[in-house]
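[Meeting: bench + compute handoff]

Bench side (C.D.) handed over the final construct sequence. Compute side (W.E.) agreed to return the predicted structure before the next meeting so the bench team could plan truncations. Sequence as handed over:
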Amino acid sequence: MLGAGIVSEVFDARGQGLPAFDFALCTDRPGRVRTDVGLPLVVDHGLDRLAAADLVIALPWADFRTPPAPAVLDALTAAHARGALVAAHCVGAFALAAAGLLDGRRATTHWRFAGLLAERHPEVTVEPDALYVDQGTVVTGAGAAAGFDLCLHLLRREYGATTANAIARDLVLPSHRDGGQAQYLATPVPEDSRDERLTDVLAWARENLHQPLPVAELARRALMSRRFFARRFAASTGTTPHAWLLGLRLSRAEELLETTELPVEEIARAVGFGSAAVLRAQFVRRRGVPPRAYRRSFSRTP
């Protein structure tokens, strides 16, 4: 039920200049489907609905240890073969693996079942700590609430950061989370005042991306030693301060490229890269295209 709720919320028809998604749930046996919380879900569409879909997301199901019906595997394979983007949330990855769509690819799933996926499908390189793994035409996501990360990534990839951020705001979600599943296994509630100080420093950093923001300065503002700050940061975010800042700067650069006509050089300075050359190098590494090409694809300015 959680998986169905996540995708239906993210791909809801919102209007307000956002993409008008044609969303539908489908199954190999249309009708009443019993969910894991006991509530019945009426699914009107059969597998023929996949024949025209641009995006197909395999959702988790209770009996995922048993491969889906051959008709389901054939429908997934056919959708991928004709060019649809095929994704999986949580243990939905087992369906893609059974269909052979993960062979020779990297993939993720819920951390509890990553070992099982690797054992059953040794031809798949399983990354148990990733929130999602993008392999071009096949994308897999981690378990439970990480379905939001998967869906927002797909939106960001296909429609740009502005659309993904707008939908994330509507859902009261962060538009992008850095790090892997490990950081979400423990309670997200701050353990003590040091975590609260860290939260305040991260908020300050988001508002001051134009500054250099060395780790020593962030640690000083958190009233911590540099070494202790780095350990605390990794425990809270699952990544390093450098990687976190880099992701934040690139995300902000994407927004400015989409929504403004600012020169690339000015955007680079505004997000803390210093020069257009540095921004371009980092942008190509993350997006695979230079900033100007990204702007041509996703610009929302007249």
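W.E. noted at the follow-up: Confidence is low (pLDDT under 50) at residues 183-192. C.D. will use this when planning the next construct.
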